[in-house]
Amino acid sequence: MINTENIVQYGELGEVRYVRNRRAKNLAIRIGRNGTVRVTVPGYTSLKRAEAFVFSKGGWIVEKIREQKKQSNGALVIRDGDKLLVRGRQIPLLLKGEQDSIEEAIWRILRKEAGDYLPGRVEELARVYGLDYSHVKVRRMKSRWGSCTPKNGINLNSWLVMLPDHLSDYVILHELAHTRHRDHGPGFWHYLDSLTGGRSKSLRKELRNQQIMSIDTK
Length: 218
Prior knowledge:
Blueprint: E1 5-10, E2 14-21, E3 28-31, E4 37-42, H1 47-56, H2 58-72, E5 76-77, E6 83-86, E7 89-92, H3 102-129, E8 135-139, E9 146-148, E10 153-157, H4 165-177, H5 186-195, H6 200-208, E11 215-216
Helix pairs in contact: 3-4
């Protein structure tokens, strides 16, 4: 029988956490960023049945664990009450209530910090390179670092303040460069190279190794 939560250790699968959720309709497996395995168990489903389900997915679980560990690439593990390091400052991470989550708390911090820093940094870089833009919006984005609108508005991901300054500057310059070159043609890359001291290719490669929300909150 499964209580509210059972933790079972298996050989290759490692630790598997079975969590009872009476509102769930189906058995479900979730692999955390650090390779942890969490199984949601509905209603009065027995541990024996839940284990059989896990064993039937054994090959898939092992593969996903390997993928997650590879992708996390040393992702920071953070919990309620910990401190989030943002541009050299440690900021307490506190939940607002039972319905709140670590991920939401992180984005709240980043919206504030990014809103305080990024618009000013865009203004500085635009002034240095003689570029014009209409406005800056700092947003929560899941898959993009930034964008430039047809009217030269700059949208930036709040997560940029979690990157090294030289990479957040690269993203800003990338978007500012679109005020001169709309597409990603040869002219754009040549111009961006001139803004980054010939480092656009290496900076682009370095940025690809960064992940948005590269924190284990499970």
